[in-house]
Design a protein that fits this description.
- The complex is a heterodimer of chains A (about 170) and B (about 220).
- Chain A has nine helices and no strands.
- With about 170 residues, chain A is mostly helical.
- Chain B has about 220 residues and is mostly helical.
- The N and C termini of chain B lie far apart (about 135 Å).
- Classes of the chains: A mainly alpha (about 170), B mainly alpha (about 220).
- At the A-B interface, helix 1, helix 2, helix 5, helix 8 and helix 9 of A face helix 1, helix 3 and helix 4 of B.
Amino acid sequence: MAALVDRFRGQVFGLCYRMLGHRQDAEDMAQESFVRALRSLANYDTQREFMPWLLAIAGNRCRSLLSTRGRRAIATDELDKVADPAPDGQAARNLAEEIELALRDLRPEYRQSFVLFHEQHMSYAEIAETLDCPVGTVKTWVHRARRELADHLLRRGVVEELPNALRRV
Amino acid sequence: MHCDEFEVRLNEVLDQRRQPEADVGLADHARLCGRCHALVTSFQAVLVGLERSLPIQCTDDLSDRVHAALAPAATLRFPRRRRLLALAASAAALLLVIGPWTWFGRGDRAAVPPLPITGPSATEQAGANSQPRPEKEIAGPYHTLARETTASLSVAMQLLPVESLGIGGAAGRQPRKASTTVPAEWVHGLTDGLTPVTRPTAGVMSTFIELISVKDEGKRS
């Protein structure tokens, strides 16, 4: 059991953190996801990949929590740092925080599919299996997530200041 | 190329389904269109920002927390099973105790009638001046000897022809078919196996003889 948790904790916690934007909530949801998965191991279809199945449980738990507290992810500790409406040069250095902020404004299904694709490096087919929806739908969600994130950065004036920063990366 | 088509192709590049070097039109449009150029820059910023904002690591005690969360469920899930196991174990133990006792006890009762050997003989009672003997003394070596003698005698009573003994059989037992002649060697061989009778046992024996002897239809030799 410990080996299984250690093997997948990064992926599960990463998804939960991206979905919820709050460390403690993410840890609680990661724990609950593992507990649910371990209790449901008897019902696990061995024909399926394990990680998409596990991440599906985690995603469902996170979306359930989001639906109870409102759709938007809340980060009480980090929100204040990036909430200024007119970012200056500091925003470019805080690009990561801007992305986190933008992610929290996305719809949960956009956010989950975007994180699974770009951060968990899952294929569209795997994401479709995880979210139990068609591949085309997943593609649309990922494309819309990219577009909304890009618009967020443009709106906040982050991109105009980025070229120099991006060249350093 | 229209801007909408440019965005579709750009997404295909990000999906790793299109090589940007192979699509000359894509690069040309991005150079000419400021809006699409900003879009390319924004997409790049999103991916760079995502790399920079790798989520913080989970605490190390996650597996312990999962284990702790599973443990109460395990104890809650099995109490009924544990109760059944305890019940089954109790029933098995009861059968182990009662089964042999019932089986062999019944056989002993059929073979040998119960004996009132807990009390002293009439002679001893008279000698003891009507004082009740303590239980510990009754269950002493005399008691064991009496039991052995009684068992030997009961075997003899079953084997010996009734007529030769001149007494009736034990109550409820069919007497063995009598033979007219009893070889003397057979009787001596049988008696060789008997436990020697000692004085204390004689009192028990007399009680036993009184028990099995005879009711109205019996006769003493």
